[in-house]
């Protein structure tokens, strides 16, 4: 009887599976998918931003076609709920000899479901352009498997994984050009989002996320800058949340904007005061980055597929997916957190926030001034409030303003948490 039942169930399960995934159309493993994407991009020979946009076999236009084909397939699978945009623009910089040149970014947008958050975008981006040893050379082979076909693959994998899901806020999966020419595509991505009326709730650039180079530590590094005081910034708050969502065994926080002497597409977002971080592999081998493929004194140079670790690419995509899904379902962070109670024995935290019916409340966070990570000091339940009151005040009895840093964040009825907003003292002149 039991067997018969199970058999009946398994036939039903097979039937159900055949409805969503017809035979022969099974989704590939993410690591195999990552390999296929990277190999297709590398097959373009070079994806230098000043190479041909019209040659379908060689050049940056060939790279664009690979990305567009992939994302359009996801768009179709999603029943067009996801929307693919090819953003053509003109730009100039020292690395275009200050001459205006054409560029193209590609975005896949998954609209948010909640009118309160649908104009907030959570963004992942990789750059699909590449370079040989000479940044101004658009002709020589520049495979760019790791830098940054790997990050481009992560955007596509994340788009595919999240397309069937629903989130309160919008998700944007980007592949941009012009990174090596001076972060031109990243700057454009921010301009485009702003022009479309989006507020950036969080941005991740995945740049060089394709190799582990024998590193015993296989965690993806998350770079975040410290802000004007060197201590906190929206990016730093986001980095802490990325770690909290994924675990210390999956991500390694690095409290720096970027690696020494290097840049990335999160920078324009950071400079605009937005929460943005950079994901990079645990240990880089500079013989495989920004190098024309060649052998010199028995050493092989070049950014080649054979140096890649596609399991790591897939794991990085999983971290990105989890992060975006959590952040895009959380209530908006408090608009403002202010710390009062200076020169008294008790600190007071004042919060201002937008009304959100899905918010359960807030958490007051604190940490020792020597600590890197927040702890929850107090939970404020506002879930039963029915009026759209947007200010809250919490007195922290017998806790001095001076011995800790404080912050606050929103918590949703679904348990999702926003990034933290530091509670800073209102500016006042110190007594003489
Ligand atoms: Zn790069």
What does the model show?
The chain is an alpha/beta fold. The chain folds into two domains: 300 residues, 3-Layer(aba) Sandwich (Aminopeptidase); 90 residues, Immunoglobulins (Immunoglobulin-like), CATH 2.60.40.10. Helix content is 27%, strand content 25%. The chain is built from eight helices and 18 strands. An eight-stranded mixed beta sheet has the order 1-2-4-3-5-8-6-7, with helices on both faces. The chain has a four-stranded mixed beta sheet with strand order 15-12-11-18, with no helix packed on it. A four-stranded antiparallel beta sheet has the order 14-13-16-17, with no helix packed on it. Helix 2 packs antiparallel against helix 3 and helix 2 packs across helix 4. The radius of gyration is 23 Å and the shape is globular. The chain binds zinc ion. The site of zinc ion has 6 residues, from helix 4.
CATH arch. level architecture of the largest domain: 3-Layer(aba) Sandwich
Described by the principal axes of the CA atoms, the overall outline is: globular
* Radius of gyration of CA atoms, rounded to a whole number: 23 Å
Provide the low-confidence segments as ranges: 1-24
Strand order in space, largest sheet: 1-2-4-3-5-8-6-7
Residue share in helix? 25-40%
Q: What is the name of the CATH superfamily of the largest domain?
A: Zn peptidases
CATH topology term of the largest domain: Aminopeptidase
The DSSP helix count reads 8
**Count of individual domains:** 2
Number of strands: 18
Strand content: 25-35%
Order of helices and strands: HHHEEEHEHEEHEHEEEHEEEEEEEE
End-to-end distance, in Å? Answer: 87 Å
